[in-house]
Amino acid sequence: MPSLLHRPTFRRGLREALPFILMVAPFGLLFGVVAQEAGLDLYQTMAMTILVIAGSSQFAAAQMIADNAPALIVLATALAVNLRMAMYSASLTPHLGQAPTWQRALVAYLLIDQAYALASVEYDKRPAASLPDKLAYFFGTMTVIAPVWYGATWLGATVGAAIPPWLALDFAVPITFLAMVAPMLRTLPHLAAATMSVVASLALAWMPHNTGLLAASALAMMAGAQAELWLSRHKLRRGPEEAR
Amino acid sequence: MSDLTIWMVILGLGIGTFLLRFSFLGMIGGRQMPEWALRHLRYTAVAVLPALVAPAVAWPVATGGQPDAARILAAIATVAAGIVTRNVLQAILAGAVVLYLALWLI
Questions:
Q1: A154, A202, A185: which is closest to A35 by C-alpha?
Q2: Are residues B65 and B26 in the same domain?
């Protein structure tokens, strides 16, 4: 582990995670506020933020605790929101699967949306990088992001009531996720997957307990994979000089 | 909800979330995954993240679920800036500027 921290990729991870402070800080602040309003005390708020580090599911859980939903329903819904983490896990396995178990466990604990977004772009760009370099990059990003997430939650839980509603902090989350996705739309299959993702999530929003999100994600991954297959067959017919 | 129940939810959510994240990394380890699986996994991020936010853009909680022109314009500006600049930070800034301008004007 100490040797990982001295790699240039660790420092690049640190640096490339910096812009994400702008999204993680308001998100954490907002969760601190919402958790207090839902009736969680400071210990419970911090315990959730440190044990779970998965913003959207924490919001879902806090919202349902406030609504007095049964504990099992709260748990099932919040975990359904996090099912995408299993897909992230699967997607990083080809890159990090060879690491020792404790390092894979640490990666798993830290596997949040932002770290996944950064790592998947990095591993796409440099697929041949060594395992320690890939690990160092991942840990670099979370060395910046995790403390900001914990600290912002604490701040929100402590000073929350003072944040005025005109700041529209609710929209910090959608804007930052969209800002993460847009630069990834560089090929036709990526565009197909994102389009299907939007259309299907809106069309399936009626499905209970956030299952629409999962169904839409699965459909969108299929759309991407099918577009990729179609494109490669198309290129074969047209000859390799047309390939991008 | 009682204090004890809240603590059970927090603990359950923490353990469950970790197991979801550890699932493939933990079980599959160094084994190679089949090409069809990799072909789907390449699109995980662009498949999940838009689905996560599209309903929040179309029906924001802050407006009681009513579609809101300012938020839709901000979302469009964010995506457009992200595609043009390929830069996350500039896309966030574009979205924030359009959101506040539109909230103020409309």
A1: A154
A2: no
Q: Which amino acid, one-letter code, is at A9?
A: T
pLDDT tens over chain A, length 244 residues: 668 889 999 999 999 999 889 878 888 888 888 888 888 999 999 999 999 999 878 887 887 787 777 888 788 878 877 877 888 898 899 899 999 999 999 999 999 988 998 999 899 899 999 999 999 999 999 999 999 999 999 999 998 767 777 777 777 778 877 887 898 898 999 999 999 999 999 999 898 766 787 789 889 999 999 999 999 998 877 655 444 4
Nearest to A201 among B54, B75, B91 (CB): B54
A209: alpha, beta or left? (left if phi > 0; alpha if psi -120 to 50): left
Indicate the residue among A145, A172, A199 that finishes a domain.
A172
pTM, two decimals, is 0.72
Are residues A22 and A147 in contact, defined by beta-carbon separation less than 8 angstroms? Answer: no
Q: Could you write out the DSSP letters of every residue in A108-151? A: HHT--HHHHHHHHHHHHH-TTS-HHHHHHHHHHHHHHHHHHHHH
- Tally the domains of chain A: 2
Chain B residues in contact with A181 by the CB 8 A cut-off are 45-46, 49-50, 79, 82
Same domain, B54 and B100: yes
- Shortest distance between the Cα of A239 and any Cα of chain B, in A, equals 22
- Residues B98/B74, Cβ–Cβ less than 8 Å: yes
Query: What angle, rounded to 10 degrees, do the helices at A113-125 and A131-159 form?
Result: 160
